[in-house]
Amino acid sequence: MKHFIFGDFKESSQDLPLEEGRSFFNRDSMRTRVDAFAQVPLDDVISLLDRVGRRLTEPGRYRDHILEIMPRITGYSLPMLDKALEALKGMLSREALEERLFCLGDRRVLDGWTLSHGKPSRALPLGAICHVAPGNIFLGSIDSMITGMITKNINVLKLSSQDPIFPFIFLEALLEEDPTRKIASTLAITSWSHTNTGMMELVGNAFDGILLFGGEDAVREYAKITAMGTRLMAYGPKLSWGLIRSGLEPEALEDAVQGFALDIALWEQKACTSCQNLFVEGKELAREVAHRLHRNLEALSQTLPQETLSLDEGVDIRKVREKAFRASFDGQGELLEGKTHSVILGEGADIIPSPLNRTIYVNALEDWRDLLQGNMRCMADHMSTAGVAVPGPLFNETLQGLEPLGIPRFCRPGTMGTGTDGGAPHDGSYIILGLVRLVSREDVPLERLGRYYDSPERREDRLLAELNRLVEQAMKSPFYQQLYADVKRPLTSLKEFEQLPVLEKEALEEHCPPMDTAMLTASSEASYIFSSGGTSGVPRNICWTTEEFKQAGRVLGQGFRALGLSSTDRVANLMRAGSLYTGFLAMNGGLEQTGCQILSITANQSIDETLELLENLKPNVAMGMTSTLVELAEKTRKEGREIRFDRIFYTGEAMSDSSRELLRSVFKASKVGSLAYGAVEIGTLGFQCDHCRHDEFHVSEDWAYLEFGDEGEVFATGTARMLHPIIRYRIGDRAAWVDTPCTCGRTARKFRLLGRTDYYVRLLYNDLYTVEIDRALAPFPELTPVYQITVQGGEKGLEVFLVIEGDEVPGLTTKVWERLKQEASEFTDLPDFGCPFAIDIVPSGSIPRVGRTGKIRKIVDLRVAK
């Protein structure tokens, strides 16, 4: 027989000899493999399984082979196998695999330290896992093994004698998707007899865990051989049933019966979750349900036909039919026979094991509470699933009333054998938690989590895995399917990623949800729409799932903690709220992570009202847009108010040296710095630590990936934005890497912002930069750093108007013109600016603000509008 042992095929007997078993399953060598596999990014494992699922189930040779050979192995008809392949594709999908890890809080705990359920956590693989495959459902062996794979254990699958074929079909597809066998080398598929006492003892001692699905005999057998240091997770035989209470509307009753018919037919009742008994409240209703069920099962015999039964299966069914027939002859119940099913109507609260293959007992109850007196009251360990069909107002009462029976799973009819919640427990517990060792650490600063302290090599591996995850998800949208039509996946290096097409702002403007959803990868339920593009004048709507927005708040909060914000601070959130702007909401979400007291003041009210709130509430930290903070400082200085902040953090626009000095002087702040670097389209891109200059940031590697192109142009990617992916987005900024290591100890790269790529205006043949205007205004105390430059075509050519907020004094505009002429590098040697250039000084607050954000459009180029 062919065995697959950690990357290599071996020929041996079907009952693996003990000497070979000792060689293959040596505890020390398996531990080495576990340690190596722990370094593989989880997203690589999940992406591989997702690709394998598509390879197996999409039209092609694998699907054809499965449909050809598996009916003989499983006894399923082709339509039933179609259902099984549909289930397999879902089971191996990235979404389903990540959902299984839900109980861990954050899947990334398997890659390193992170916040999970609000606590610093790490999940280490249990080690080497032996999977004793279930034989009742052919997908069961793979289902068990992939649970071990996504927890980064190494996995040995003991084949079921009922199906030695499908695991090798799965393996063949996996090897094609994993040609280097990086992940395949963590798997073994083999077999041995339970009478091989030497191998059984080896299994009980050599492995860190045994995951077993089987009958009571198998559970007892493995319990005997399992050593103290081995974790046995045994799932024995289970029973599932349904309940219909009286009072359902006719349509609801028919829906329930149709659902239960599917639960009976699916997998020929061989799954633990298959419905074997149906309890109905009231004799007349039970008889009606039995006849309706008979009709629905007849219909399913056409759409979901049954293959020929074995002789033993046929004999078992004949026995129960004859018994039911005799009972009906005596006036006790009724037998409804179909070609492929049996409906046996009776009375009582006891569950009756079915011979399966669409044999259902319909049991009438006088009162649904009678179930508490039947034989199930002492069978809690054998319960799996109860399908429940009851009137809505009675639902909670029913579930609470059935709690003493110890049923671990309730669901609606039609989903007993399929399941709709991949993150739910299995038979009352999370298998995932049994396959890991959870580690916590106390009294450690929360900001020292994530990948910021990983080695560069490990960070790059994890990053590439996350980018592949993102690109695969993006391909579910029509926009990216077209944009990446010629891209070979998966990407094998960051260099390949950097060859992907650039995403331009025009694409976001053209495909703007909710009107245009071409960029979305799924339905937009449970999501936000935020808008960007205020200062550019053209809105760009962006979709975020609610969970993405929560995660973005956690990332922003991690940066706030790096700034030193803590529970001792009272922070004024001075961001503008509303009009689809994310700033205020995002700020509060980030501040929640620091434990500080939050003052949700906003910048929506007048400056005077804001100042009164600040005077009364006395925050020690202020956060807001640059223009808002400067305006508050100007007003405070002019009116002689006494408002003090220990620290001030700005965002939205770069803050000039003169503005920072203004804030320090007026508010007596010990620090004035940037609160974060980000974009509405993606969220946080960078954060500052105590060792950063005002224009320096660490990359927020848990959330974003940055590239700097020619002349430092920034291309940004949101690595965790799955609903509305933003990949290689030309963000409009310029930056450069800071090559010297940061003294804070973080290994996340630092960069320095150099300004906007569009922060200049072309006047005839030369460029005037906003930074030059900033420098020109700085020496004049009468002026604020708030201004707007407008360029338009006049009767005689180009005209330029520079409006500055401040206090007008005679001769000041001439001095500003002369100073600007000195600072403007491309005009220094020219007699003027090449066109009429007027300067006007206006009172503070005169320049119109963008309504949503409070920003000022520094450049208004009316030539573009024409």
Features:
single chain; 866 residues; alpha/beta; seven-stranded mixed sheet; 27 helices; 35% helix; 23% strand
Describe this structure as you would to a colleague.
This protein is of the alpha/beta class. It has 27 helices and 37 strands. The strands form 8 sheets. Strands 2-1-7-6-5-8-9 form a 7-stranded mixed beta sheet, with helices on both faces. It is elongated. The termini are far apart. The mean pLDDT is 92.
> Care to count the β-strands?
37
Q: Which structural category do the helix and sheet elements fall into?
A: alpha/beta
Task: Report the average pLDDT across residues.
Answer: 92
Main pleated sheet: 7 strands, mixed
- Strand fraction: 15-25%
**How many distinct helices?**
27
Name the overall outline: elongated
Can you give the helix content as a percent range? 25-40%
Terminal Cα separation, in Å?
78 Å
Question: Gist?
Answer:
The chain is an alpha/beta fold. It is 35% helix and 23% strand.
Write the layout of secondary structure elements.
Blueprint: E1 2-5, E2 8-11, H1 18-24, H2 27-37, H3 42-57, H4 61-74, H5 78-91, H6 94-100, E3 114-116, E4 119-125, E5 128-132, H7 140-150, E6 154-158, H8 166-177, E7 187-190, H9 197-206, E8 209-213, H10 216-225, E9 231-235, E10 239-244, H11 250-265, E11 275-281, H12 283-303, H13 311-329, E12 334-337, E13 342-347, E14 359-365, E15 383-389, H14 395-402, E16 410-411, H15 431-434, E17 436-440, H16 456-474, H17 478-483, H18 494-497, H19 505-510, E18 527-532, E19 540-545, H20 546-562, E20 570-573, H21 583-592, E21 597-599, H22 607-617, E22 621-625, H23 626-639, E23 647-651, H24 657-667, E24 671-674, E25 677-679, E26 683-687, E27 696-699, E28 704-708, E29 713-718, E30 729-738, E31 750-756, E32 760-763, E33 766-769, H25 770-777, E34 783-794, E35 797-806, H26 812-823, E36 837-842, E37 859-861, H27 862-865
Parallel strand pairs: 5-6, 5-8, 6-7, 8-9, 10-11, 10-15, 11-14, 13-14, 15-16, 20-21, 20-22, 22-23, 23-24, 34-37, 35-36
Antiparallel strand pairs: 1-2, 1-7, 3-4, 4-17, 12-13, 18-19, 25-26, 26-27, 27-31, 28-29, 29-30, 30-31, 32-33, 34-35
